[in-house]
Amino acid sequence: MQDGPLTLRRRDLLSLIGAVAGSAAMYQAMTALGFAAESRYRGPIRLEGDPRGISVLVLGAGLAGMTAALELRKAGYSVQILEFNDRAGGRNWSLRGGDSFVELGGFKQTCDFADGLYLNPGPWRIPYHHRALLDYCKRLNVALEPFIQLNHNAYLHASRAFGGMPQRIRAVKADFQGEISELLAKATSQGKLDETLSKQDQEILLQALRSWGALDGDYRYSAGLISSGYRGYAKPPGGGLAAVPLPSNPVGLSDILNSGLWRYLRNFAEYNFQTTMFQPVGGMDMIGKAFAKEVGDLIHYNAKVTEILQDDRGVTVTYSDAKNSKSTLQASADWCVCTIPLSILSQLKINVGAAKKAAIDAVPYAGAVKIGLQFKRRFWEEDDAIYGGISYTDLPIRQIGYPNSGYNRTGRAVLLGAYLFDGANAYEFTAMPPDERVAGAVEFGAAIHPQYRREFENGIAVAWHRVPFTLGCSGDWTHEARAQHYDNLCRIDGRIVLAGEHASALPAWQEGAILSSLDAITRLHERVMKT
Amino acid sequence: MQDGPLTLRRRDLLSLIGAVAGSAAMYQAMTALGFAAESRYRGPIRLEGDPRGISVLVLGAGLAGMTAALELRKAGYSVQILEFNDRAGGRNWSLRGGDSFVELGGFKQTCDFADGLYLNPGPWRIPYHHRALLDYCKRLNVALEPFIQLNHNAYLHASRAFGGMPQRIRAVKADFQGEISELLAKATSQGKLDETLSKQDQEILLQALRSWGALDGDYRYSAGLISSGYRGYAKPPGGGLAAVPLPSNPVGLSDILNSGLWRYLRNFAEYNFQTTMFQPVGGMDMIGKAFAKEVGDLIHYNAKVTEILQDDRGVTVTYSDAKNSKSTLQASADWCVCTIPLSILSQLKINVGAAKKAAIDAVPYAGAVKIGLQFKRRFWEEDDAIYGGISYTDLPIRQIGYPNSGYNRTGRAVLLGAYLFDGANAYEFTAMPPDERVAGAVEFGAAIHPQYRREFENGIAVAWHRVPFTLGCSGDWTHEARAQHYDNLCRIDGRIVLAGEHASALPAWQEGAILSSLDAITRLHERVMKT
């Protein structure tokens, strides 16, 4: 046997690792080799064979339902969709001036936003790694623009810290990083890491901490131009005479720790919220509309499903016209892809096995509230130099999301004035009439932007627990429920398969809905081809 | 005297601090109070009085020159501009298909980019805190879109680390943060911070390190779903059956330290590169063009200045037609705003005082090289899920900048294939003929993106030391030169004042050019109004 260097192509190496050590090791080796295969999505689905004459009834024209309909029709199936709303998209939804909707309890809101402005009450951002959704956007010509998750100049706000004054994210981030770097540099210099790191690594660590933590020549995070080069200046560099910058003063570590503002920093680092994120140009519902352009001819709108019955020959669904509840209609097909949210489905009559029924009943729905506020001008840009992104607060509104489009323009704009999820705050706002929710968002928001009081024009508030077509914003799985019920929820039961974000490991994300749908129809198609 | 609570408006408090403790303390208090005043720019300049009949000759139609011309004419001055190029904008420049230019040494390049594609060979990004530039963009209707500086999914690459395989920024960032968090958590738990932090603060610090560093329940940064939630998964969560994610394996701290990849992390944190950054929609030169729409009627193009002479009555500038070097023309005015780069100005005859002349001669110019490459498709998006942002490498090309527009589209695209600045690499590439520079960028880039070899179509390379109108990309001040010469450079000398990025504390930034210009014309106007 020769003893020369072994030359392997990366793919061969990975196959070898897969064969020897199993798929987990192979996937991990792929990551380590920088091999870009970190998605579940393997490109457009291929459903091979000839299912002509076989029919599928899809329940729900959200992204899961429309994905199923689009791909099943393309594969040769005869498809129809029943949809509760008078529009496609489901939670993929944008509200614009003139739109109105009625929530559970009877409150009707009409949106008064000016032309071109909108609120995405449901999903509002798309991570770069949501490959299936991005591929559908490409195939369906949905234009994308960046969604700013981290804006260094937006605010972090704790009601009982810093005299209630909001702090710039850049300052909190730089000070926290700088001060823990100083602590670790000190421990290193004092020999306290000698058991953990070699002397040589300690020396590099000191350089790294200095570079990354903005430490000075003595490895201290101190007031001066070095730290100001990260956290911002009291007076930044200028032009001409008197251009010299003035440094700002870092906040002490103890103040940051006790303020709790460090809690928000993870929102800028987590995989789900990393750059580059996207939003569709013009509103999230551009995606739903693009799907509807493809499959709109298959959709029966205003169809309120009341019963889903199957036998060994097919599925029959009873529904009424949502605008005329006394009507009783039926639709039948050989198979059914049901994307109805579990919050609704659990209340319908459906003859599935006990395990499936238990799974359908096992998932409570989260109750987010989103409130859009229109202002006379972009004061957050003009006065505060905040362009897009999110400010976080411990006030009930939790977040203020600035518009990620139309930057630097004059005139009116809409921001997300509150994004409450779970917990007492969301319930409390859900219980209020919509106008009180809007007034509350303005009142709380004014603690961060006093300009609210002068510039506010109108608002709209979507409390997802009161939205008739979902009764909640997304499936709220516990670990225990998932362990016990998830597979049962996803398995094909007779002639029925479920899909939607609730049938995914990506709850609340549109990618979860699409991947779930692709998985469901792949298995359904296999079953059909076998029978 | 009453002893009740003192109620002060913030502005009053700041005035008080300013009066008692001086302006530095006041500015620092402003920052601490979250008061948004962190810019030199105070809104549109107001030059009051009536200078009608008084003339100003502006040299150079870059941003500094055109700002001066726009504002001086508005104030009532009679203004003309001499510009060396046959276009306005100067270093505010974009290259598109059909454009050509000749560099020093005679090499002529013609750009072959497809319609709608461009390279910004000069400035390419605008920080949110460049308030003057942003205000001119607003006033001149220049549409902006985000420039992605940090893309977590772009690469960091060290030739001699990780077998030469590029690493995802997200993985390096998460692993570095996680591992230093683990080190500091360990030191804390072992009582090694007892002298520095109270026990209560130590407890909060542990929580903060766990949250921010993605530590597990034992305060360790370990392979698992927690760290994968930051660094990315080997196999991410999916939909339907078999949706469970597989964790990825962190890289050890010693490997990261020795790779040197930590050096790049500061590029995502520094004040100058923080979110939200911008670029003009359609190319950086949209700004220059918008200025030229305002002041284009004042510009004499192709005017190569050879001599600037002043006496106590005015300034006379001798120039030739750049397309006919034997011509000799003259322009005169009462005052002169000279924005000619010092690299050029130092070679011209100009009768200013010795201190000013010494200042003009004191500043060498940096020699950046930028190379634009057109590819058949956006393989970085399609294959690598990299949308915008920058990959960094220790190879001579230093950076690969992905286009921050047209995301997710099919068809051709242009990326920045090299951005070399200073040092041997830039000189080496500057010395090559343009086609070799392009070939070199393709060769080196293929180490990061092997797709280069199949997808490359054409390229263009701008070596700033060879660009006739600047002979370098920007003034490269040393601390010593600045201490000795900067004020002399900026002071009005007789009837001449200098402006441009070289006369600012923001070298190489367009904001420096504009702020410098506004400062120069403010002082010039004061002088005029006094005489």
Description of the structure:
The structure is a homodimer. By secondary structure, chain A is an alpha/beta fold. The first copy, chain A, is about 35% helix and about 20% strand. The first copy, chain A, has a five-stranded parallel beta sheet, covered by helices on one side. In chain A, strand 12 (about 305-310) and strand 13 form a beta hairpin. The two termini of chain A are about 55 Å apart. The model of chain A is unreliable at about 1-10 (pLDDT under 50). At the A-B interface, helix 2, helix 4, strand 7, strand 9 and helix 5 of A face helix 2, helix 4, strand 7, strand 9 and helix 5 of B.
Tell me briefly what this model is.
The first copy, chain A, is of the alpha/beta class and 531 residues long. In chain A, a hairpin with a 5-residue loop joins strand 4 and strand 5.
What is the share of helical residues of chain A? 25-40%
The proportion of residues in beta strands of chain A is 15-25%
Largest interface: A-B, 131 and 131 residues
Rough outline of chain A = globular
Largest sheet of chain A: 5 strands, parallel
What is the count of β-strands of chain A? 24
Task: Work out the oligomeric state of the chains in this entry.
Answer: homodimer
Which structural category do the helix and sheet elements of chain A fall into?
alpha/beta
Computed over alpha carbons, the radius of gyration of chain A is 27 Å
**Number of helical elements of chain A:** 17
**Average of pLDDT of chain A:** 93
The first-to-last residue Cα distance of chain A is: 53 Å
Instruction: Give unreliable regions of chain A as ranges.
Output: 1-8
Strand order of the largest sheet of chain A: 11-2-1-15-24
